[in-house]
Amino acid sequence: MSMLAYLIPISLGLGLLGLATFLWALRSGQYEDLDGAAERILYDEDHPK
Amino acid sequence: MTAAVNRLPAGELRLASHPLGDGRFRTDLSLPGMHCGGCVARVEKALSALDGVESARANLSSRRVAVTWQSPEPPPLGPALDALGFEAHLPSGDAQGGNAEHTRLVRALAVAGFAAMNVMALSVAVWSGAASETRDLFHWISAAIALPALAYSGRVFFASAWQALRHGRTNMDVPISIGVVLAFAMSLYDTIEGQPHAYFDASISLLFFLLIGRTLDHMMRERARAGVTGLRRLVAYGATVVGADGSRDHIPVEEIVPGMRILVAAGERIPVDAVVLEGRSDIDTALATGESTPLAAAPGAELRAGTLNLTGPLTIRATAAARDSFLAEMVRLMETVESARSGYRRIADRASRLYAPVVHAAAFLAFLGWLWATGDWHRALGVAVAVLIITCPCALGLAVPMVQVVAARRLFERGIMVKDGSALERLAEADTVLFDKTGTLTLGRARLINRTAIGEEALIAAASIAGYSRHPHSLALAGTVAGNRTFDAVAERPGLGVEARCGAEVWRLGRAEWALAEASGQSGTVLSRDGAWVASFVFEDQPRPGTAAACAELAQLGMAIEIVSGDRSAPVAALAREAGIASVQSAMLPGDKVAHIAALEADGARVLMVGDGLNDAPALAAAHVSMAPANAADIGRQSADLVFLHPGLDAVPFAVGIARRAARLVRQNFALAVAYNAVALPLAAAGLLTPLIAALAMSASSLLVVANALRLSAHAPSRALQRAEPRRRRELVPA
User: Fold this and answer.
1) Chain B: closest CA distance from residue A28 (Å)
2) For residues B40 and B93, is the Cβ–Cβ distance under 8 A?
3) Stretch B223-234: mean pLDDT, rounded?
């Protein structure tokens, strides 16, 4: 039973991490242009430095 | 295309931009033609290269580009895009409000999804037989997850339910909120007491499913709204006003007062009602009055706001302020019409009005029954909550939006935008179609119809001369024949026609009274050489493709068809014969159309109005449901429930067909949900419902409803697939 003491917090923590990542992605506008993002990768110019 | 950005004066672009402070501006442009990654790259590159442009960011999903610039004069965005072959429009309305609501819903959905998954994982452990202390621990953790998630994600429903209750009404959100909150409170009590059953998973996954339905519904409306506002706007933001000292200012339309002198270049809209002071031109009034032939404008002529100046520059004197102009008059008429749809209650609301009392009564009866039979308060309350949870309209909440989203998707593939779900429900009920003529049954574009009667040489000469003018008749002529004839000099005489010189010969193409040396009683458009008649041209408004077929299809769907037009009766009758429509009303004023609709509705008909003009806007608002083509006037498009983008009129029967099938599926879904309740409710009332059964039953009924909704897209007729807009192949080499 003692493993529950850390397994459950770990599982919840990972879930929260996923939720936080999604909310961050939403806030930073990554879902604004789903069609464009898929196409942009074919055209973006590289700037190797 | 009239209000494309490349033709707008610089001042107009400035008025349409948002100031960002310290001299910087942001301009949003709509580019309907942008459809691949290559376009995005070209647009951003070209705009960023302009002087004064700080950044340009294109959005392929919404077909828009946001340009940030800092310079005294707006950069030449329109011409730059024009050079690339993109037509830019100023989007009307702002996109910010809807986006905030969308973000709120997606956040609530994400939180509810996270909580539902974790609570469900813990519940599975409990169902598989976790023993006393572990079970209590899991219940406590579930409660700790569910409480904040309910508080955050549940607000969407709680707020709406509270609004409804405060106004003494009830909607679908009331039973949802009561069920969710009671389930949580009851489970929390049981957790404190160390009882074996808790419904945290049921209450939070219920919220999750319902939020999916709510978010889909919202996305459907957003998409249509973005599409509709992205189309060209017809009302000018501003106008060039000439001061007493001859100075020229570009001011917003709202600041125009009667008496001001205004310059209107060829290709611009008349901003307010006015009289012509100087200049001659032709005025396209198709959108305002439905008349298909352009009117000549000479000094003294009265012009209406919203009409289009075609051929020559005009100086006009405002006779009314913007708020008293024709356009504003139409808006007022729209506000005063007794709209049939304001009284319309959505099917989900009607269902919940019956459903909520039944469910609440059943729960209350179960409570009384158990209390009377056992005398155990806690047991009785537990059963009552179980009844509320199991009957909580999870499937009902998904039943309608799911079908409507799939239907909207099908319509979108065919270039038809639906404003919201209620439009689909109302469209399915429609049994009478009223068509406007100019711009709706016709394209509002002239077509030469006596081509065979004209000699080849005369036609080539006319087409070559016509190439110099933007008059609709010239545009129609210019495209009729290959071959070209050169002239020494060509000049347009606004309001009259086009004059061309070839050596000593003078050719004239235009109004008969002007082109011919002696009055011959002829009228219409003629070609003359040195004042002598060469050829006459007869034009007709070009019908939309598939008009007759669409009317036949509508008749087959059992709909009565009628034309209501503001145009004269001769052209209307001719078109009605061609389209096979027996019932015709012509020369109708905007108010007449509204009255006609009211009379039909009073007889019990459900009217679908299809129209495009300013003069149709009140009728569009008054009808039970309305459709407008994409080239309709702004105000008409905004009052229409559906907007179709492709020129073909086949969009109308297609939309009606889809709406009716959607209505059938919604009814089936309701039947499924009711059948599910008929089975589950006795179980719950008998006290046999465990959290495991509740979770299974709820998920199963939701899946069933969703699967049934998807049938709408499953057996798509192949015809629809062929007509879908072909997606251009991606080019892998940057242009």
Assistant:
1) 11
2) no
3) 56
Q: State the Rg of chain B over Cα.
A: 32
A23 CA: distance to closest CA in chain B (Å): 7
Q: What percent of chain B has pLDDT over 90?
A: 8
Contact A15 B110 (CB under 8 A): no
Cα separation of B627 and B608, whole Å? 7
Residues ≥6 apart with Cβ < 8 Å to B473: B294, B446, B466, B525, B537, B539
Which two tokens mark B526? Answer: 């003629």
CA distances from B477 to A29, B448, B459, B669 (A): 49, 7, 8, 55
Helix A2-27 × helix B132-153 angle, to 10°: 10
**B523: amino acid identity, one letter:** S
CB atoms within 10 A of CB B339: 17
Q: Judge whether B603 counts as a catalytic residue.
A: no
Q: Phi/psi at B263 (nearest 5 deg)?
A: -95, 130
The pair of structure tokens assigned to B265 is 């270049």
Q: How far apart are CA B179 and CA B392, in angstroms?
A: 6
Would you state the structure tokens that stand for residue B379, as one six-digit string? Answer: 């047991």
- One-letter amino acid of B148: P
Number of neighbouring beta carbons within 10 Å of residue B175: 25
Q: Can you tell me the distance from the alpha carbon of B492 to that of B29, in angstroms, rounded to the nearest whole number?
A: 32
Gap between the Cα atoms of A46 and B16, Å rounded: 34
Instruction: Please indicate whether, in this complex, the C-beta atoms of B118 and A15 are within 8 angstroms of each other.
Output: yes
Per DSSP, chain A holds a count of helices (H) and strands (E) of 2, 0
Average pLDDT over all residues of chain B: 80
Q: Give which of B63, B54, B52 is closest to B10, Cα–Cα.
A: B52
Q: How many other β-carbons are positioned within 10 Å of the β-carbon of residue B141?
A: 18
- Bigger pLDDT: B563 or B240? B563
Q: Per the residue annotation, which of B28, B173, B282, B436 is the catalytic one?
A: B436
Question: What SS3 class is residue B279?
Answer: coil
ipTM: 0.82
Query: Region B192-199: what's the mean pLDDT?
Result: 84
